[in-house]
Write a structure and sequence with these properties.
Blueprint: E1 8-12, H1 19-29, E2 33-36, H2 37-42, H3 44-47, E3 51-56, H4 65-69, E4 76-79, H5 89-93, E5 98-100, H6 103-122, H7 125-133, E6 153-157, H8 161-171, E7 176-180, H9 187-193, E8 195-197, H10 201-207, E9 210-213, H11 227-232, E10 238-241, H12 250-258, E11 264-267, E12 287-289, H13 298-317, E13 324-325
Parallel strand pairs: 1-2, 1-3, 3-4, 4-5, 6-7, 6-9, 7-8, 9-10, 10-11, 11-12
Antiparallel strand pairs: 5-13
The protein binds 3-hydroxypyruvic acid (3PY).
Domain D-isomer specific 2-hydroxyacid dehydrogenase NAD-binding: 115-294
Protein name: Glyoxylate reductase
Domain D-isomer specific 2-hydroxyacid dehydrogenase catalytic: 29-325
């Protein structure tokens, strides 16, 4: 089929020239006529009617009313990634447009990232690397001892599919696993990973050596971890965040890390992203920050594109949609 006859997909944020993005474009071109944001802006009049789907490639708040008003035939916005807090679902739905996400592709790489951050913080990997490459060779490990993950207690806040995959990995480290979630998991699922349910988040915070945040960002989870919650954690505990930055009250975290209320933090997400260069979190030495790379693997990029393509085709062909997200 000629590319013009295929349904048009507007690509947000795929404009790079990196090999991995070109590979995604190859996958998408099998089913769609690809339209970049640049092409769209240069030739809005002619192109806008052709666009039936939008592929959101990065976690950015890019879909506004003005864009939706300019796309009369839009049927679906396919988000890469599971979190859709950057999309105004109610507003999008008022245009009769569906939103989909990619929960399957993200679960393993994001859980891996949680483990990577926990291990890196526990064993002070970033400092170790800096010491190894520094010109001063007179460093003694005894001056910067880490802590062990093996047999420690891990508290997982948010036991959806990513949280559960973290628990599966933590079991291999003989960790004691606690979790807090809106809904308790089935008994068989708890037993399979040896996880204990804490109805009260406070109990989990008080007992855990590592607390990992894996919740969606919603009005209920906004600043879920603040001064009070940090104060409940052990002074030897580490806070890991692989969900969304705004789940933590960052001012309270700065204070807690400065005053050694907790041992350390390891964050893949912050607000805003990236943090301003003079942000106090960047001045601390008991923190590791990565730039929201939970799904930044070659494999995840491909799986997310495949999952998004399946979602878009289902909407356009009127089939059951594998992963639709509904406004609350
Ligand atoms: O899937 C998502 O929404 C992520 O942010 C993964 O890190």
């Amino acid at each position: 089929m000629a590319k013009e006859e295929l349904p048009g997909v507007l690509i947000l944020d795929i404009g790079g020239t990196h090999g991995v993005l070109e590979n995604l474009a190859v996958l998408l071109r099998k089913h769609f006529h690809l339209i970049t944001m640049k092409e769209f802006l240069e030739n809005k009049e002619e192109i806008s009617k052709k666009i039936q789907s939008v592929f959101v490639f990065e976690y950015r708040p890019t879909i506004d009313r003005e864009l939706l008003e300019s796309l009369p035939n839009l049927k679906v916005i396919a988000n890469s990634g599971v979190g859709v807090d950057h999309l105004d679902l109610k507003m999008i739905s008022s245009f009769g447009v569906k939103v989909t996400n990619t929960p399957h592709a993200v679960a393993d790489p994001t859980a891996d990232m949680g483990m990577a951050l926990m291990l890196a913080s526990a064993r002070r990997l970033v400092e170790g690397c800096q010491i190894a490459i520094s010109p001063d060779t007179k460093h003694f490990a005894v001056d910067w001892l880490g802590v062990e993950v093996t047999r420690a207690t891990l508290g997982i806040i948010g036991m959806g599919s990513i949280g559960y995959k973290v628990a599966q990995r933590a079991r291999a480290f003989n960790m004691r696993i606690l979790y807090h979630n809106r809904n308790r998991r089935r008994k068989e699922e708890e037993e399979a990973v040896g996880a204990h349910y804490c109805e009260k988040m406070e109990d989990l915070l008080q007992q855990s050596d590592f607390v990992m945040l894996v919740v969606n960002l919603t009005p209920e989870t906004h600043k879920l971890i603040g001064k009070k919650e940090l104060g409940l954690m052990k002074p030897t505990a580490t806070l890991i965040n692989i969900s969304r930055g705004a789940v933590i009250d960052q001012d309270a975290l700065v204070e807690a890390l400065q005053n050694k209320v907790i041992r350390a933090a390891a964050l893949d997400v912050t607000y805003p992203e990236p943090l301003p260069r003079d942000h106090p979190l960047l001045k601390l030495n008991n923190i590791i920050i990565t730039p929201h790379i939970g799904t930044a693997t070659i494999q995840a990029m491909h799986m997310m594109a495949e999952e998004a393509i399946a979602n878009m085709l289902a909407v356009l062909n009127g089939h059951p949609i594998p992963s639709e997200v509904f406004p609350k």
